[in-house]
Amino acid sequence: MNTALRNLVRFILFSVILLQMGCQSQPQSQAGFRAALLSPGPVSDAGWNASAYEGLLRIRDELRAEISQVEVKTPAQFEQGFRDYASRGFNIVFGHGFEFQDAAAAVAPDFPQTVFITSSGTTVRPNVAPMVFEIEQATYLMGVMVAMMSQSGKAGCVGGMEIPSVKSGFQALEAGAKSIKPDFVVVQSFIGNWEDVGAAKEATLALIDQGADFVFQNADAAGLGVFQAAHERGVFAFGSNKNQNAIAPQVILASAVLDVPQAFLNVAQAVKENRFKAEIMRMGMKDNVVSLALNSDLQNKIPAEVMAKVEEVKKGILAGEIEVPMGF
User: Fold this and answer.
1) How many angstroms separate the CA atoms of 243 and 51, rounded?
2) CATH of residue 47
């Protein structure tokens, strides 16, 4: 082999080695950002899960990400879902609920390059963090409204699973009501799942039979049953997580709204830009993530003095003068 040919071969081999090194050291972000969602219920629920899916779509559209979503029901499925997406190289996986914490903490050490986010909770690991939506601020305002408008002095709350994040919202509603009328009564009922519309309706009818003339639900897809019962019995209801006023415009007085899509996008962008910090991320009214959306069709049913008091209390919360109880 002559000298020129040997030099050509060496050059080709050296170029191949450099190319291989470049491929091996290519940052994960260069291969495309990938985000996934584990939802505990159907994304068609017009509430909690629907808002998460909207967030996933915003990540797709604004960060040009590849996305995927799966509905999971049990702790074993939570862990399997996290592990599956992480093993496939997803950059961020959302577990949409308080109940996903243990699964995220169990899987995270095996996949340090993936960030696991739970919607609610207190569990923090190097690559695990919760987003805590302070819905309590909105439900506290609902409590003020209820105490000033109720004829019976009693309201009901219907939840899906009896988990701290749901109970906390109910407790804040009760605290808001008692800030106006200390003897006001709030009764809670849990149906044990997020989908059983019939069970939610029966639970609501039972609360109304006990004297509740206002009902608040945080039961995801099952919440439709709460609105059905309220309509049948002629009492007002409140929506949760999304603006649900249009679902039953003659029944839903207001909704406690969370801007989950914006929160999802913010966290995903931080991960993509390597700005993510593993910490509890609390988001409330001052962050424009939590709000109380009044139903314009029923606003004439709310006395002016009630509206004025709600606005006064809202300002107090924003100024830090009124402390809203948080269950966790």
Assistant:
1) 10
2) 3.40.50.2300
Tell whether 98 and 158 lie within a shared domain.
no
Range of the domain at 310: 136-257+298-318
Examine the domain organization and report whether 152 and 249 are in the same domain: yes
Q: Which residues of 253-283 are buried (b: 16+ CB within 10 A; e: fewer)?
A: bbbbbbbbbbbbbbbbeebbeeebebeebeb
Around Cβ 89, how many Cβ atoms within 10 Å?
14
In angstroms, the CA 245 to CA 223 distance is 12
CA distance 38 to 8: 53
Q: What is the pLDDT along the chain (328 residues), one digit of tens a residue?
A: 444 434 433 433 333 333 333 333 333 334 699 999 999 999 999 999 999 999 999 999 999 999 999 999 999 999 999 999 999 999 999 999 999 999 999 999 999 999 999 999 999 999 999 999 999 999 999 999 999 999 999 999 999 999 999 999 999 999 999 999 999 999 999 999 999 999 999 999 999 999 999 999 999 999 999 999 999 999 999 999 999 999 999 999 999 999 999 999 999 999 999 999 999 999 999 999 999 999 999 999 999 999 999 999 999 999 999 999 998 7
Per residue, what are the HEC states of 121-175?
A: CCCCECCEEEEEECCHHHHHHHHHHHHHHCCCCEEEEEECCCCHHHHHHHHHHHH
Neighbours of 168 (CB within 10 A): 23
Q: What angle do CA 181, 185, 191 make, to 5 degrees?
A: 145
- My answer on whether 248 and 267 are in the same domain is no
Neighbours of 288 (CB within 10 A): 10
Distance between the two ends of the chain, CA-based, in angstroms?
Answer: 76
**Residue 104 near residue 126, CB atoms below 8 Å:** no
Same domain for 146 and 242, yes or no, is yes
Residues 280 and 123 sit within 8 Å (Cβ to Cβ) = no
Look up the pTM and report it.
0.85
The alpha carbon of 76 is separated from its chain's Cα centroid by a whole number of angstroms, namely 21
